[in-house]
Amino acid sequence: MKQISSPNNEHIRHLHRLLSQGKFRRQYAQTVLEGVHLLQVFLQSGRKPVGVYIPEGKMPSEEVRKLTAVLLEDRIFSVSDGILKKISSLSCADDILALIDIPLGGTLPDKGDCVVLDGVQDPGNVGTVLRSAAAAGVGKVVLGRGSADVWSPKVLRAGMGAHFLLDIYSQADLEIWLARYEDRVFATALREEKQAVLYGEDLCGPTAWVFGNEGAGVGKAVLDRADKCVRIPMHDATESLNVAMAATVCLFEQMRQRATY
Predict the structure, then answer these.
(1) Per-residue confidence (pLDDT) for residue 237, from 0 to 100
(2) Which tens digit of pLDDT belongs to each residue from 147-168?
(3) Dihedral (C-alpha) 240, 245, 251, 255: value to the nearest 10 degrees?
């Protein structure tokens, strides 16, 4: 096990850059998991971290001993207390940080169930949609350009480990991709053309669900590719649903119809 006692250590500087700047995450194709829970889910998915950084004060705990037992010793770093707290975005006391390589999404799917995010910018919304997709059994998520960085600390925290249960494709040109996608495309929108009510649709077939920007909604070019514009019925006095909530309603209605629970 290696020891780190200086906040100027090259490992600490690298973690700080990854936590604070998207360009570094893209440059190195790496990100940082904050906290024990995300690391546990990551390990359960069969992946191994590049490095795990543990505050000295936490080393004797049973939880940490269980984690370190399944890790290679040369990937474990004991860090002087207080150092990780200075770079982490967590508000709690020192916690474990794990450096990981960002899983490669590979080739965009030509067919099959998937969730598509068109310019969804709030990290909390993106993370919640990922959680709902995983919970509803939809294993692929495609993010168009302009959506929040799916591997940022805020999205990772909101996703609560869902990232490692999904195939994630980032920075996609949605218009070009949807032109070759073979199954039907449903977008949540209040467009009169191609309008459909969620609970009146047969959702048993493979579908790409498109959810749009918090303010502007789904872009026109993407809407033009949709087979139907799906509306969620609500009482007249209510506002439109938050995008993450709308996605959850649609995906769990699909799950209910398929009786996959």
Answers:
(1) 64
(2) 999 999 999 999 999 999 999 9
(3) -110
- Rounded Cα distance, 59 and 227, in Å: 55
Q: Which positions ≥6 away from 149 have C-beta within 8 Å?
A: 22, 25, 123, 155, 170
Q: Is 133 exposed, middle or buried (0-12, 13-18, 19+ CB in 10 A)?
A: buried
The predicted model gives 55-67 an average pLDDT of 86
- The per-residue pLDDT for 73 is 86
Give yes or no for a contact between 201 and 170, defined as CB atoms under 8 angstroms apart.
no
Phi, psi of 197 (to 5 degrees): -95, 130
The β-bridge partners of 34 are 97
Q: How far is CA 194 from CA 22, 86, 189, in A?
A: 38, 52, 10
Q: What is the mean pLDDT of residues 210-215?
A: 92
- What SS3 class is residue 36? helix
The whole-angstrom distance between residue 196's C-alpha and the CA centroid of its chain comes to 28
What count of other Cβ atoms lies within 10 Å of the Cβ of residue 185?
A: 19
pLDDT at 239 over 80: no
Given a contact cutoff of 8 angstroms between Cβ atoms, the answer to whether 80 and 173 are in contact is no
Q: Look at residue 207 and give its three-state secondary structure.
A: strand
And the tokens for 84? 């990780």
Q: What is the pLDDT of residues 102-120, one digit of tens each?
A: 988 789 999 999 999 999 9
